User: Fold this.
Amino acid sequence: MENQDKNEVLSRAVKAGKRTYFFDVKSTKTEELYLTITESKRKFDAETGNFFYEKHKIFLYKEDFDKFQNALSGVIDFIRTGKVPEETMFEQESGFGGEGKIDVSFEDLDRA
Assistant:
């Protein structure tokens, strides 16, 4: 636990109803900074009669910040205005061959 606390640089929490979102800036052994975003939701286990927290976490590295921010801004703007963003969510990186979009579904991610 002590080692885990050492790599935390900054933390912010956003409470939203039954959920809390944590934005944690952490540092690798080589002092590279990255972001973890955690959704924590309080749930009730009817069998045990106890509350527990269900957590989902993503790791976001510096080289992906711009792509992530652009995609997030685009989908938020779409929700607010109904205007479809021009950028694509999944674009192939150079070196992977082919052009255009990558066709990915959540079902495919479960098989990985």
Observations:
- The chain is about 25% helix and 40% strand.
- Helices lie at 2-6, 65-81, 106-111.
- The chain has one domain: 2-84.
